[in-house]
Dispatched RND transporter family member 3
Amino acid sequence: MVTTLACDTKRGWKFDFSFYVAAQEQQHTRKLYFAQYHRPPFHGRVCATPPGCLLSSSPDGPTKGFFYVPSEKGPRARLSATFGFNPCVNTGCGKPAVRPLVDTGAMVFVVFGIVGINRTRQVDNHVIGDPGSVIYDSGFDLFKEIGHLCRLCKAIAGNVELVKPGGAQCLPSGYSISAFLQMLHPECKELPEPNLLPGQLSHGAVGVKEGRVQWISMAFESTTYKGKSSFQTYSDYLRWESFLQQQLQTFPEGSALRRGFQTCEHWKQIFMEIIGVQSALYGLALSLLICVAAVAVFTTHVLLLLPVLLSILGIVCLVVTIMYWSGWEMGAVEAISLSILVGSSVDYCVHLVEGYLLAGENLPPHQAEDAHSQRQWRTLEAVRHVGVAIVSSALTTVIATVPLFFCIIAPFAKFGKIVALNTGVSILYTLTVSTALLGIMAPGSFTRTRTSFLKALGAVLLAGALGLGACLLLLWSGYKVPLPNGTSL
């Protein structure tokens, strides 16, 4: 459209050419006009304004118009390597690529040829314990059991509830056994292929010693998401264990494959978390029972025990709620701290109850007529008597834990924060809720005597005997009592 005769610099023309044009305005474009005319002295031209391209007064036709070209002022867009790529050619689209495996699920290994670990050897004066030695299954023969192994691989890979699509990695990568394994048995044909990234190796493995395959491990990308809670993941572990045992029972009697097992690094983590949480709950319940028994013997009255018990429960619940709001996870430090929360939160309210009992020994005669007046007067006297002491004790405890906040070792810093939080909540709860409970439900004219002490001690012993008898009855009836270490009685 631009001829050499029209590019006369004296007339204000300049050579301008662009490869990309658009019929409609786009971002970062400029508008140009064109006119095509092949009769001398007029020539085809491209110009920036309409006056330069109006060759005649005739209406716009196919030889006149405008278009848009990229502006030099706009940012130059970088086109991707796949720009303009069309996967659908010849009226058909190819099969989409399979999504490769990523490390979001637990990798479960099904192992054969290993019986267990021998940990009988003891190494003295060593900080790291002996991991033990592997006990191999002498009856395992890979080439004898190859058909059953391939059938098991297909069965596990076909369980979509346990294994992701393309998550079966039955054979190791880059090992000579993978090349001819499929020719040994008809069952080994058409084994499921894993979806691996370029250069990524299979997690399947074999152990060879003296030219003999001693063990084999098949890997499966589980549908278990690693971000699930431990108790939810435990149900996935049970499904894996149940399904695998069902498959192993289908093997012939005496087959070494019946001694196979499944293992996963993620299972160890969830078992540690479950045992930690259960241990924390057991420790919390045990410390609460001991605390209730001790306070019952100390106060010798159920209406003095009840305010203390409600205060302990309220303090523990409030501290755990604050820990949850702060985003703290249940770790080893938190589990240990839960077991000592009861003992550290009972101090201040028990001192307040002690002040209430001491105030009853000096009750004025004009307060002895009305039980409500007696409770209020004794509560106020208890706060006057021990209030300064327990507040000072709480302040010194909090100040003593402040240096732990700046420890480099994380467990120390976390423990200091938990102790300071529990101390602050305990003193606040004691001066508000515990004081109110004493003024509402405490006995007005009760004083501690030797008779009340013996009655309280007998009630605690009787309750302990009844609890022990109930546990023995459950064990005798076949009920398994779970223990903190994961076992059961």
